[in-house]
TrEMBL record:
Record carries keyword Phosphoprotein: no
Name this polypeptide is given: Glucuronosyltransferase PGSIP8
Keywords: Manganese, Membrane, Signal, Transferase, Transmembrane, Transmembrane helix
Annotated source species: Panicum virgatum
Domain of life: Eukaryota
The family this protein is said to belong to: Belongs to the MNN1/MNT family.
CDD domains assigned to the protein according to its UniProt record, in alphabetical order: GT8_Glycogenin
InterPro entries, per database record: Alpha_mannosyltransferase, GNT1/Glycosyltrans_8, Nucleotide-diphossugar_trans
GO molecular function: glycosyltransferase activity
Length: 469
């Protein structure tokens, strides 16, 4: 089934990813004069996706270095961030500020989401008083160009993705210990916070931002005071892209892409592309800036194991020739057949799901998808061997997944609507084939049950037998 080609694809892709990642190393300047501005992000522990956000933060900070940002890169890290992660950030030229987690007084709210429990650590950005301006960032931003003009903005500036509520994935602030202390006081007294997270708190703290003028950087480079709305081009919601499959943001430079989507569809996951067309953009930034050296050994080990499984099952596959079975179904075999159908159904499901969950989640999609297909093929071959199933019936879903990937990754759709219709049409045509293959698989189990019943001596001695050749 072309498993050797799959191995060569994985090895070649892994080599290319590692090589380009190594070339993308960013070396911090030594002995540079203190800078007045900073790009800052935060990092904390306690979520199921800590490692993914750590990787995303490193990629974003390195991409800022490659864009020659004339500012320090700072990570506000909680004290429980692993020392090796802190050291890796420092090796990237990032300044790490260690802080204690701010207690979230809103975690008892009815609508509170626990994944936002520590997002109030973002308020520490106001304590970075060694800088005149700070651009505070979430880790799911992709920078398309240098945005140093943001440091000319006022004491607080943010983008309105939602028509009425600004987004805190990127905002500009003027550090002030007085403001920081006031914010801590507001937390202590329980200031109104609709979502219990940083966005709800800041929207409550700066309620009049919607009425403020739009930011336009002065040509003479002077800094503005007051509060301003930032053009949408500084926080281009990825969902805007999916409608037309291109950017058409009229207000402001198209500088930064953000992904305020469901947690499991953040762009750093290997399955994000081609499900979400922009997922590959983030991985390209990682390939250029950080590489995949931490995941490639695991990918290669899994690939070798899967190919070993395929080789063993091919050699050990029993022949169906010269097997005898009884044409008549005994009552005891009816129960066995029903039980066997359930076991086979769950086994096929496991063959397609287990590889998905054991692949390193932040690996490049061009490594993740071939590894998934190789893994599901190898586990399916085990199911085929154990239950003597027709290979094509079991692998129909496998071929259907490959087709889905090609349909979704086709690069010449006119817009997102046409792409969605094409995926729907493909699924509509493919579903009957998958169902027919499942029915054929279940019906073929009767041969296995009758053969085993004969071996156990269940049929009477006068029964008629038939040979399969």
């Amino acid at each position: 089934m072309g498993w050797s080609v799959g191995l060569w694809w994985l090895v070649a892709a892994a080599w290319a990813v590692a090589a380009v990642g190594a070339e993308g190393e960013v070396v911090a300047a030594v002995g540079a004069a203190p800078r007045r501005h900073a790009y800052a992000a935060m990092m904390y522990m306690g979520t199921p996706r800590d490692y993914e956000f750590y990787v995303a933060t490193r990629v974003m900070m390195r991409s800022l270095g490659r864009l020659s940002a004339s500012a320090d890169r700072v990570v506000i890290a909680s004290l429980d961030v692993p020392p090796r992660w802190v050291q890796a950030l420092k090796d990237d030229g990032v300044k790490v500020v260690s802080v204690e987690n701010l207690k979230n007084p809103y975690e008892k709210q009815e609508n509170f989401n626990m994944r936002f429990k520590l997002t109030l650590n973002k308020l520490y950005a106001w304590s970075l008083v060694s800088y005149e301006r700070v651009v505070m960032l979430d880790s799911d931003n992709i920078f398309l160009q240098n945005t140093d003009e943001l440091f000319q903005c006022g004491r607080f500036c943010a983008v309105f993705i939602n028509p009425c509520i600004f987004h805190t994935g990127l905002f500009v602030l003027k550090p002030s210990m007085d403001v920081f202390k006031k914010m801590l006081h507001e937390l202590a007294v329980g200031r109104e916070n609709p979502d219990g997270a940083d966005q709800g708190f800041l929207a409550s703290y700066f309620p009049d931002l919607l009425d403020q003028p739009m930011f336009h950087p002065p040509a003479n480079g002077t800094k503005l005071e007051g509060t301003y709305r930032l053009p949408l081009g500084y926080q281009m919601d990825a969902s805007y892209y999916y409608l037309k499959l291109c950017w058409s943001i009229p207000c402001g430079p198209n500088s930064v892409i953000t992904f305020p989507s469901a947690p499991w569809f953040k762009p750093w996951y290997w399955w994000s592309w081609p499900v979400l067309p922009l997922g590959l953009s983030w991985h390209e930034q990682r390939r250029e800036n950080l590489g995949y050296s931490s995941e490639i050994p695991v990918v290669l080990i899994q690939a070798v194991l899967y190919i070993g499984v395929i080789a063993v099952t091919r050699l050990a596959r029993p022949s169906l020739s010269k097997m005898c079975y009884n044409r008549r179904m005994e009552k005891s075999t009816m129960f066995l057949l029903s039980l066997l159908r359930v076991v086979v159904a769950w086994s096929i499901l496991a063959a397609y799901t287990i590889p998905f969950f054991i692949i390193p989640r932040t690996v490049h999609p061009l490594l993740g998808w071939p590894l998934y297909l190789l893994g599901s093929f190898s586990l399916s071959s085990i199911v085929i061997n154990i239950f003597l199933l027709h290979p094509i019936s079991v692998l129909t879903t496998w071929f259907g997944i490959i087709g889905t990937l090609f349909v979704m990754s086709f690069p010449w759709y006119l817009n997102g609507v046409v792409r969605a219709l094409a995926v729907f049409a493909y699924a509509f045509c493919c579903a009957p084939l998958v169902w027919a293959s499942l029915v054929k698989t279940m019906s073929s189990l009767q041969v296995l049950v009758e053969r085993d019943a004969f071996r156990l001596g269940e049929p009477n001695q006068n029964a008629e037998f038939t040979k399969l050749y």
